[in-house]
Protein backbone atom coordinates (compact mmCIF):
# COMPACT_ATOMS: atom_id res chain seq x y z
CA UNK A 1 0.00 0.00 0.00
CA UNK A 2 1.15 3.51 -0.75
CA UNK A 3 2.14 5.39 2.38
CA UNK A 4 0.35 8.70 2.69
CA UNK A 5 1.95 11.25 5.00
CA UNK A 6 -0.24 12.82 7.65
CA UNK A 7 1.58 16.14 7.34
CA UNK A 8 2.46 18.09 4.24
CA UNK A 9 4.93 20.47 5.90
CA UNK A 10 6.85 19.88 9.12
CA UNK A 11 9.57 21.50 11.16
CA UNK A 12 12.10 19.16 12.73
CA UNK A 13 14.10 20.35 15.75
CA UNK A 14 17.39 18.59 16.35
CA UNK A 15 19.63 19.46 19.25
CA UNK A 16 23.30 19.90 18.50
CA UNK A 17 23.89 16.92 20.76
CA UNK A 18 22.00 14.76 18.28
CA UNK A 19 25.09 14.98 16.04
CA UNK A 20 27.54 14.21 18.81
CA UNK A 21 27.27 10.44 19.24
CA UNK A 22 29.29 8.92 22.09
CA UNK A 23 31.83 11.74 22.16
CA UNK A 24 31.65 14.77 24.45
CA UNK A 25 32.01 17.33 21.69
CA UNK A 26 31.55 17.91 18.00
CA UNK A 27 30.07 16.03 15.07
CA UNK A 28 30.25 12.24 14.72
CA UNK A 29 30.32 11.24 11.02
CA UNK A 30 28.47 7.97 11.53
CA UNK A 31 25.75 9.70 13.57
CA UNK A 32 25.46 12.35 10.86
CA UNK A 33 25.02 9.60 8.28
CA UNK A 34 22.33 7.89 10.37
CA UNK A 35 20.38 11.10 10.92
CA UNK A 36 20.66 12.12 7.27
CA UNK A 37 19.29 8.76 6.12
CA UNK A 38 16.41 8.96 8.60
CA UNK A 39 15.47 12.45 7.41
CA UNK A 40 15.88 11.48 3.74
CA UNK A 41 12.88 9.16 4.16
CA UNK A 42 10.68 12.28 4.35
CA UNK A 43 11.76 13.33 0.89
CA UNK A 44 10.45 10.11 -0.64
CA UNK A 45 7.06 10.99 0.88
CA UNK A 46 7.36 14.52 -0.53
CA UNK A 47 6.99 16.05 2.92
CA UNK A 48 8.15 19.67 2.90
CA UNK A 49 10.71 19.77 5.66
CA UNK A 50 12.32 22.61 7.56
CA UNK A 51 14.96 21.81 10.16
CA UNK A 52 16.28 23.85 13.06
CA UNK A 53 19.47 22.53 14.58
CA UNK A 54 21.03 23.53 17.90
CA UNK A 55 24.65 24.09 18.75
CA UNK A 56 25.10 22.50 22.18
CA UNK A 57 27.59 19.94 20.87
CA UNK A 58 29.96 22.81 20.11
CA UNK A 59 29.10 25.81 22.26
CA UNK A 60 26.36 26.89 24.67
CA UNK A 61 25.95 30.49 25.72
CA UNK A 62 25.49 29.75 29.41
CA UNK A 63 28.55 27.51 29.47
CA UNK A 64 30.46 30.43 27.97
CA UNK A 65 29.15 32.75 30.67
CA UNK A 66 30.40 30.27 33.30
CA UNK A 67 33.82 30.59 31.64
CA UNK A 68 33.66 34.36 32.00
CA UNK A 69 32.34 35.46 28.62
CA UNK A 70 29.81 38.23 28.28
CA UNK A 71 26.32 36.72 27.82
CA UNK A 72 25.54 38.35 24.51
CA UNK A 73 28.95 37.46 23.06
CA UNK A 74 28.61 33.90 24.34
CA UNK A 75 25.15 33.56 22.79
CA UNK A 76 26.52 34.83 19.50
CA UNK A 77 29.18 32.14 19.67
CA UNK A 78 26.42 29.59 20.36
CA UNK A 79 24.48 30.76 17.33
CA UNK A 80 27.59 30.50 15.16
CA UNK A 81 27.96 26.92 16.44
CA UNK A 82 24.53 26.15 15.00
CA UNK A 83 25.77 27.35 11.61
CA UNK A 84 28.53 24.72 11.66
CA UNK A 85 25.97 22.03 12.47
CA UNK A 86 23.58 23.30 9.80
CA UNK A 87 26.27 23.09 7.13
CA UNK A 88 27.25 19.59 8.27
CA UNK A 89 23.63 18.44 8.24
CA UNK A 90 22.96 19.97 4.84
CA UNK A 91 26.02 18.18 3.46
CA UNK A 92 24.85 14.91 5.01
CA UNK A 93 21.39 15.32 3.51
CA UNK A 94 22.76 16.22 0.08
CA UNK A 95 24.89 13.08 0.17
CA UNK A 96 21.73 11.06 0.76
CA UNK A 97 19.87 12.54 -2.17
CA UNK A 98 18.08 15.41 -0.46
CA UNK A 99 18.57 18.81 -2.09
CA UNK A 100 19.07 21.11 0.86
CA UNK A 101 19.52 24.82 1.49
CA UNK A 102 20.87 26.52 4.60
CA UNK A 103 19.25 29.82 5.53
CA UNK A 104 20.95 31.68 8.35
CA UNK A 105 19.59 34.29 10.74
CA UNK A 106 23.14 35.67 10.73
CA UNK A 107 24.40 37.02 7.46
CA UNK A 108 27.49 35.08 6.46
CA UNK A 109 26.87 35.64 2.81
CA UNK A 110 29.84 33.91 1.27
CA UNK A 111 29.00 30.69 3.13
CA UNK A 112 25.22 30.43 3.59
CA UNK A 113 22.22 32.38 2.37
CA UNK A 114 20.61 34.83 4.76
CA UNK A 115 17.23 33.81 6.14
CA UNK A 116 14.45 35.48 4.20
CA UNK A 117 11.03 34.05 4.85
CA UNK A 118 9.87 34.26 1.24
CA UNK A 119 12.97 32.41 0.14
CA UNK A 120 12.35 29.66 2.65
CA UNK A 121 8.80 29.27 1.35
CA UNK A 122 9.86 29.07 -2.27
CA UNK A 123 12.62 26.56 -1.55
CA UNK A 124 10.18 24.34 0.34
CA UNK A 125 7.69 24.55 -2.51
CA UNK A 126 10.46 23.60 -4.94
CA UNK A 127 11.21 20.47 -2.90
CA UNK A 128 14.34 21.59 -1.10
CA UNK A 129 14.76 20.79 2.57
CA UNK A 130 15.70 23.95 4.42
CA UNK A 131 18.01 24.02 7.43
CA UNK A 132 17.53 27.17 9.49
CA UNK A 133 20.82 28.22 11.06
CA UNK A 134 21.82 30.72 13.77
CA UNK A 135 18.69 30.22 15.85
CA UNK A 136 16.52 33.32 16.06
CA UNK A 137 19.56 35.53 15.51
CA UNK A 138 19.03 37.01 18.97
CA UNK A 139 20.80 36.38 22.27
CA UNK A 140 18.81 35.14 25.30
CA UNK A 141 16.78 32.81 23.07
CA UNK A 142 17.22 29.13 22.28
CA UNK A 143 17.00 27.00 19.18
CA UNK A 144 13.80 25.49 20.62
CA UNK A 145 12.25 28.94 20.37
CA UNK A 146 13.78 29.33 16.90
CA UNK A 147 12.10 26.04 15.93
CA UNK A 148 8.65 27.27 16.99
CA UNK A 149 9.24 30.65 15.34
CA UNK A 150 10.37 29.20 12.02
CA UNK A 151 7.57 26.63 12.10
CA UNK A 152 5.04 29.46 12.43
CA UNK A 153 6.72 31.48 9.70
CA UNK A 154 6.69 28.60 7.21
CA UNK A 155 3.24 27.46 8.38
CA UNK A 156 4.41 24.00 9.36
CA UNK A 157 1.58 21.84 10.69
CA UNK A 158 3.67 20.36 13.51
CA UNK A 159 7.05 20.56 15.17
CA UNK A 160 8.92 17.29 15.63
CA UNK A 161 11.29 17.55 18.55
CA UNK A 162 13.85 14.77 18.30
CA UNK A 163 15.25 13.60 21.63
CA UNK A 164 17.10 10.67 23.14
CA UNK A 165 14.06 9.39 25.06
CA UNK A 166 10.83 8.08 23.59
CA UNK A 167 8.62 10.91 24.81
CA UNK A 168 7.82 13.10 27.78
CA UNK A 169 7.88 11.43 31.23
CA UNK A 170 6.55 12.47 34.64
CA UNK A 171 10.15 12.24 35.92
CA UNK A 172 13.54 11.30 34.51
CA UNK A 173 13.02 7.65 33.48
CA UNK A 174 16.74 6.95 33.89
CA UNK A 175 16.74 8.03 37.56
CA UNK A 176 13.16 7.16 38.54
CA UNK A 177 11.82 3.74 37.48
CA UNK A 178 8.24 4.74 38.42
CA UNK A 179 8.30 7.60 35.88
CA UNK A 180 5.39 7.32 33.47
CA UNK A 181 5.27 8.35 29.86
CA UNK A 182 2.59 10.72 28.62
CA UNK A 183 0.98 9.97 25.26
CA UNK A 184 -0.68 13.38 25.11
CA UNK A 185 -0.22 16.61 27.02
CA UNK A 186 -1.82 20.01 26.74
CA UNK A 187 0.45 23.05 26.74
CA UNK A 188 -1.03 23.96 30.14
CA UNK A 189 -0.08 20.57 31.57
CA UNK A 190 3.47 21.03 30.32
CA UNK A 191 3.58 24.42 32.03
CA UNK A 192 1.80 23.36 35.28
CA UNK A 193 3.80 20.17 35.75
CA UNK A 194 6.96 22.02 34.77
CA UNK A 195 7.83 19.29 32.27
CA UNK A 196 11.02 20.07 30.42
CA UNK A 197 9.75 19.60 26.87
CA UNK A 198 11.15 22.88 25.61
CA UNK A 199 11.97 26.13 27.39
CA UNK A 200 9.04 28.29 28.51
CA UNK A 201 9.45 30.88 25.77
CA UNK A 202 9.15 28.15 23.15
CA UNK A 203 6.19 26.42 24.83
CA UNK A 204 4.19 29.61 25.31
CA UNK A 205 4.82 30.67 21.71
CA UNK A 206 3.56 27.28 20.53
CA UNK A 207 0.54 27.49 22.85
CA UNK A 208 -0.39 31.03 21.84
CA UNK A 209 -0.44 29.95 18.20
CA UNK A 210 -1.86 26.46 18.66
CA UNK A 211 1.12 24.75 17.09
CA UNK A 212 1.33 21.06 18.04
CA UNK A 213 4.60 19.40 19.01
CA UNK A 214 5.60 15.78 18.84
CA UNK A 215 8.45 14.71 21.12
CA UNK A 216 10.03 11.41 20.15
CA UNK A 217 13.23 9.40 20.09
CA UNK A 218 15.08 9.88 16.84
CA UNK A 219 17.78 7.37 17.71
CA UNK A 220 15.16 4.68 17.04
CA UNK A 221 15.35 3.87 13.32
CA UNK A 222 12.16 4.64 11.40
CA UNK A 223 10.62 6.84 14.09
CA UNK A 224 10.64 10.04 12.09
CA UNK A 225 8.94 8.24 9.22
CA UNK A 226 6.30 6.86 11.61
CA UNK A 227 5.75 10.31 13.07
CA UNK A 228 5.14 11.83 9.67
CA UNK A 229 2.75 9.01 8.78
CA UNK A 230 0.74 9.91 11.88
CA UNK A 231 1.63 6.74 13.79
CA UNK A 232 1.98 6.89 17.55
CA UNK A 233 5.53 7.66 18.52
CA UNK A 234 6.48 9.65 21.58
CA UNK A 235 4.34 12.35 23.17
CA UNK A 236 2.04 14.78 21.40
CA UNK A 237 1.66 18.24 22.93
CA UNK A 238 -1.31 20.26 21.76
CA UNK A 239 -4.37 22.27 22.68
N1 LIG B 1 21.34 30.81 20.92
C1 LIG B 1 20.90 32.13 21.04
N2 LIG B 1 19.77 32.51 20.40
C2 LIG B 1 19.02 31.67 19.66
C3 LIG B 1 19.43 30.31 19.56
C4 LIG B 1 20.59 29.91 20.19
O1 LIG B 1 21.54 32.93 21.70
O2 LIG B 1 17.99 32.09 19.08
C5 LIG B 1 22.62 30.39 21.52
C6 LIG B 1 22.57 30.07 22.99
O3 LIG B 1 23.76 30.56 23.58
C7 LIG B 1 22.57 28.54 23.02
C8 LIG B 1 23.41 28.20 21.82
O4 LIG B 1 23.11 29.23 20.86
O5 LIG B 1 23.15 28.02 24.19
C9 LIG B 1 23.12 26.85 21.22
O6 LIG B 1 21.73 26.69 21.02
P1 LIG B 1 20.88 25.66 21.89
O7 LIG B 1 21.39 25.61 23.29
O8 LIG B 1 19.46 25.95 21.71
O9 LIG B 1 21.27 24.34 21.18
P2 LIG B 1 20.91 22.83 21.61
O10 LIG B 1 20.93 22.76 23.11
O11 LIG B 1 19.54 22.55 21.04
O12 LIG B 1 22.00 22.03 20.97
Automatic annotation (TrEMBL):
UMP binds at residues 55, 75, 136-143. One of its GO terms (biological process) is UDP biosynthetic process. Coiled coil: none annotated. It is found in: Cytoplasm. InterPro entries: AceGlu_kinase-like_sf (IPR036393), Asp/Glu/Uridylate_kinase (IPR001048), Uridylate_kinase (IPR011817), Uridylate_kinase_bac (IPR015963). Keywords: ATP-binding, Cytoplasm, Kinase, Nucleotide-binding, Pyrimidine biosynthesis, Transferase. ATP binds at residues 13-16, 56, 60, 163, 169, 172. SUPFAM superfamilies: Carbamate kinase-like. Residues 9-217 form the Aspartate/glutamate/uridylate kinase domain. Inhibited by UTP. GO terms for molecular function: ATP binding; UMP kinase activity. GO terms for cellular component: cytoplasm. The keyword Nucleus does not apply. It is an enzyme of class 2 (transferase). Its EC number is 2.7.4.22. It comes from the Bacteria. It catalyses: UMP + ATP = UDP + ADP. Pathway: Pyrimidine metabolism; CTP biosynthesis via de novo pathway; UDP from UMP (UMPK route): step 1/1. Belongs to the UMP kinase family. Homohexamer. Catalyzes the reversible phosphorylation of UMP to UDP. PANTHER family: URIDYLATE KINASE (PTHR42833), URIDYLATE KINASE PUMPKIN, CHLOROPLASTIC (PTHR42833:SF4). This is Uridylate kinase.
